[in-house]
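Record type: ASSEMBLY
Status: queued
Input:
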Amino acid sequence: MTRPEGQVLLEVSDLGKVFPGRRVGFSRRVGPSVQALRGASFTLREGEVVGIVGESGSGKTTLIRTILRLIPATSGSVRLLGRDILGLDAKAVREFVRPNVRMIFQHPEAVLNPGYTIGTALAKPLELYESGPDEAATHERVIQLLATVGLGPEFADKLPRELSGGEKRRVGLCRALATRPRVILADEPISGLDVFLQERVLAWLLRERARRRFGLVIVSHDLERVNQVCDRVLVMYRGRIVEDMVLREREGRAADQFVHPYSQLLQRSRVDLLARSDGAVEGVGAPLESWAADAADGCVYALQCARRAELGSPADCGSEMPGSRALTPGHRVACHHAEAPMGGADGVHKGPLEAGGTA
Ligand SMILES: Nc1ncnc2c1ncn2[C@@H]1O[C@H](COP(=O)(O)OP(=O)(O)O)[C@@H](O)[C@H]1O
Ligand SMILES: [Mg+2]
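Status: finished
Output:
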């Protein structure tokens, strides 16, 4: 691998999140709890771009909200710049986590106060974390920030309602950049934008990443798009990171080969994971209602898995959650039978991989 190994910025280990069951209607009955994250682990390095893909409801947003300390984790740990952040008190979160890890929200409306101008919205984090009370310096930085996403200085005086959806997204990007963060977590930063704007938003993000060397996580439901811009991709299914693969340098990219049957399905079928409003996609995954009902034991993908069927339903798939293990350096998979040759008609997976890599 030719890519230089930057400093580890974020180290997520075995992160788990269980949402308690909600009360059903007006009855006293409480619905089943939801295991939104199951032992999620990954690292993010300086300057690295990591994509997280998975269908709606697979836990992508929960993963980044937990890392940001917006919701409490049920288990596991998160280290930011070497420091464990899940145990920090509110003051330390404000001082250490907030400026260093920024989120780009899927719906920027939710964080833009309708009564504040864009200039005020951007000045707040700047005053808190960068320029202090120096008004002129702050104003100058606001104009600079707006310019990085192609917005003129006149936008500083506008209210959120005067902006188009795309312009709000761009302001959301500015907000994330304002504190000179080490890590940016972007939740579906380009979904719902037209293709032209998608390209530009990605280009801005990647340009700033190259300039400032922050680590960037891009959550997306579009595996193909993510493959084009990321150094590494994590595939999530029902709260589990089922595959974590470094994408080769450009010339070798065609050789990238997912081995988890779910990743292969995504790659092969090119499904739009937002195709259906209920989040389930034909042939991909189970309806969300069955989520909580399924057994905690066994592989999260067992019931849908073509490989399991092909192998005659080996017992371990149903009884034991496969751990995430390294197949080769830079490639981890959570599947008991990742090495099993697949005789599928499509021939996506050709023969066993070298087992027992490091990392
Ligand atoms: N605040 C919450 N309370 C209860 N369940 C939640 C909450 N937030 C998310 N969930 C559930 O957790 C699962 C993962 O959701 P989410 O992280 O939003 O997925 P994604 O971002 O991949 O679409 C879903 O089943 C969702 O319904
Ligand atoms: Mg989401």
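Annotation: The chain is about 30% helix and 20% strand.
Annotation: The first strand starts at residue 8 and ends at 19.
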